[in-house]
Amino acid sequence: xxxxxxxxxxxEFLFAVEEDDKLPLDCGRTLRNVxxxxxxxxxxxxxKRNAILILHALSGDAxxxxxxxxxxxxxxxxxxMVGPGKPIDTNKYFVICSNxxxxxxxxxxxxxxxxxxxxxxNLDFPVLTIADMVRAQQRLIEYLEIPELLAVxxxxxxxxxxxxxxxxxxxxxxxVAAIATTAQLSxxxxxxxWIGRSAIQYDHEFVNGNYDDEFPPEHGLSIARMLAHVTYxxxxxxxxxxxxxxxxxxxxxxxxxxxxxxxxxxxxQGQRFVERFDANSYLYIxxxxxxxxxxxxxxxxxxxxxxxxxxxxLVVSFTSDWLFTTKQSEExxxxxxxxxxxxxFCEIESSYGxxxxxxxxxxxxxxxxxxxxxxxxxxxxxxxx
Amino acid sequence: xxxxxxxxYVQERPDLMAIADLIPEGxxxxxxxxGNGLFLKYLVETKHIRALGIDISQEAIIQCIDTGVxxxxxxxxxxxxxxxxxxxxxxxxxxxxxxxxxxHRLLQEMLRIGRNAIVGVINFGHIRNRFQILFYxxxxxxxxxPHQWHxxxxxxxxxLKDFKHLCRELDFKxxxxxxxxxxxxxxxxLSRLWPNMxxxxxxxxxxKRRKSFEE
Lengths: 385, 215
Fold this sequence. Notes:
The structure holds two protein chains of two kinds. Chain A is α/β, with parallel strands linked by helices. Chain A has helices at 130-143, 157-168, 187-201, 218-232, 235-241, 261-276, 279-291, 302-305, 326-338, 356-359, 361-384, and strands spanning 11-15, 23-24, 30-31, 34-41, 51-55, 82-83, 88-89, 94-98, 151-155, 175-179, 312-318, 343-348. Chain A contains eleven helices and twelve strands. In chain A, helix 9 (326-338) links the parallel strand 11 (312-318) and strand 12. Chain A is globular and about 75 Å long. The mean pLDDT of chain A is 96. A seven-stranded mixed β-sheet of chain B has the order 3-2-1-4-5-7-6, with helices on both faces. The A-B interface holds A 312, 314, 330, 333-334, 337-338, 340, 342-349, 363, 366-367, 370-371, 374, 377-378 and B 52, 58, 61-62, 64-66, 68, 70-74, 81-84, 87.
């Protein structure tokens, strides 16, 4: 077995440089000089039918698997799922993972320099939607000269983009794997996002988004992350992982510092997040999710929204996911079936909550890899007919 | 799993062979309780149908996706309202009706979704079952009904006659009746003489009575 590290070099795609090539956005504004960070793995076959686009969740990036250097000890965010011999096998498929615009991992976002002013956009950056993110990615796929993707795969916010892809560019999407996702954000999820953004905006270091790189609104961002993190877990997984265990002593401290293991864990997650994520990006990306509502594209009917879609779909939910529930996945399935589209749906038994899409690799991997294999086989068979 | 597995699997099941014979080329077919999906795969290969399966078991869903058959994870005891009225030509239910909490509701649901329903019914009135009750005074246990009365998933057992009565009550007409015995063809023929006594199970094709024609 080859145990050497798979090294990958991130790439950048710059577009919308010319005035007449600007990226139009849902809010009515446009973006110029747009950079998309992306990574690719494997080889594109001659018939160009083995290309898979992977889309990441809120805090993800283009680095889906492998390592950036031999000394790098942190693999990509879906390393168990994607790579040579993995369920999304890069020996077999040409895998592209694209970052989203609005983020802070190398693509154009609120901390980028506004070409008009020469200064960071900050809150002057246009408010984005999921469809805008997809619009930017479509430019990348066009640039890579891939006429039709074998599959667009994503979990959580990545799943939203995958669904949007199949509606915005139906002729470019052969199949979709939408995992732990929803066709519209529920009021409960919007509420959590609002609290998270409020924590950032009420941090006195926030200064209306014009904070210094040295003094970001750390407290607000870490509170937002802690809150969001709870929504990614489940009651059961927290009980299993922490119970009512105490972090340091055998007895209560009778102080307001952390006592419980779960408190310590959340604080650690919050602190780590601040080191790698930007507060303004957090505002923009959560807002994009809040606005996400595919049924709005069909005048209130999700079925109508998928009327032009032609992909084959795999929809996966997890039993303990209370952020994007099985019920929400079933709504997607219903709309797809109403349009006589080919769809498979599995609700995977898991106690991990929403995070299951990153953790239940054995079952999810089997399903996704079998789905992709059959999609490619049928597609190539159709061509022979 | 591939097409050969599917052929092998179906050939060992006379009830599935009988059902397959009823399905025309290119039909839209929904299989309720589709299990590993091999029967649908067989129909795709031999009849070029548009297939969809529904099953409650995660393992079955995984197998169907492996087989390459579209499948929905769902519970037949719940409403199937995610499927449109009359969106399938045939809705199949094979040897599962007796496990339903409300068998009659599922039959109605099948004929809401499909123009025809094909139902494989286990015959509790088979002579061996009658003997077991008559002579041993105990609920029958057999190859087809291997569970003890207290732990069986088969909570609504009936005879072929019972099924026909239910169809009449629900105003369904029976288009085809195919009584089946254990394995060989000779026995199948025998079972036709007195199905409610001699058939181990039976495949029925049913449809809604079209009121407009009769009035």
